[in-house]
Amino acid sequence: MTLNQVKSLYQEQLKSLYPENEIHSILQIVCEDLLNWSRSDFMIKDREELSHLQEEILQTSLRELRTSKPVQYITGKAHFYGHEFSVNEHTLIPRQETEELVDMIIKDHKAETYLNIIDIGTGTGCIGLSLKAAKPDCIITLMDVSEEALVIAQLNANHIKTPVKTILQDVLALDELPEEYDVIVSNPPYVRNMEKEEIHSNVLEHEPHLALFVEDHDPLIFYSKILKLAQKALKTEGILYLEINQYLPEEMKKIARGLGFDSEVFQDLNGNNRMMKCVRS
Q: How far is CA 206 from CA 92, 149, 163, 209, 274, in A?
């Protein structure tokens, strides 16, 4: 079997799940991450015969993809802000929108070398570790309620060679954060159960619901708690950065205002209300 034949097979068997260009990208990721091919290899090896092992790897991946399993869980890798992160079923797959949040923080603090930062609900550690890689003198703390997620976060810290502190903790059970911080950042669960019908099956059936969903009757429970904790834990000129539910920016502003914060909402590249910056008023 040649790569061209595999491409046709992937297109035929995945067309009900993904658009054509996305299937092409998925196969490219599989070839790069599991066959150790370069991008140019993927472009020029169309007519070469695959080895038995290569063909088996691609066929096995296709069977998993047909179950809606995300390609990142198949390869065990996700790319975020120029780094490669390990992922598994206990962690969300890092999103492009979250890269924009990281970029905002780095640009806001480009003149500062030392910052004490906590990343609440860290998952893979992609936010905190990307900040640490960009600003090596910063002190980074990664917090998560999931012990399995923190194992992956620590693995990623070791891979990127960025020393960090980790805390296993349910933020909703906290009365205060352990230190004062220059930056508090969080991408907490914010998708309401009523929004599940908008979620692609590969997310809904495979990514951890603990990190995704909140109850419809109290969708901003994590934000209320984090804002209250930030009241005490932010240094005088500290900033709280949040990734938010695109449908609830005004509700978010109201909570922030009630807790003594001036807030500003920013849109992502898709035009959705996605990021929020809060400072004490």
A: 9, 15, 30, 9, 23
Domain ranges of the chain: 3-66, 78-280
Distance CA 114, CA 116 (A): 7
**In this predicted model, what pLDDT tens digit does every residue of 72-83 receive, in sequence order?**
999 999 999 999
What is the C-alpha to C-alpha distance for residues 227 and 184, in angstroms, rounded to an integer?
A: 10
Torsion-angle region of residue 271: left (phi > 0), alpha (psi -120 to 50) or beta?
Answer: left
How deeply is 259 buried, as exposed, middle or buried, from its count of CB atoms within 10 A (0-12, 13-18, 19+)?
middle
Q: How far apart are CA 213 and CA 200, in angstroms?
A: 14
pTM over 0.85: yes
pLDDT given for residue 231 in this prediction: 96
The backbone torsions φ and ψ at residue 26, rounded to the nearest 5 degrees and listed phi first, read -65, -45
Q: With the CA atoms of 112, 162, 188 and 239 taken in that order, what torsion angle do they form, in degrees rounded to the nearest 10?
A: -10
Its CATH class, for the domain covering 78-280, is alpha beta
Report the amino acid identity of residue 102: V
> What is the pairing mode between strands 234-243 and 181-186?
parallel
β-pair type (165-168, 234-243): unpaired
From the CA atom positions of the chain, what is the Rg in Å?
20
C-alpha angle with apex 77: 200 to 226, nearest 5 degrees? 65
Round to whole Å and give the CA distance between 169 and 141: 12
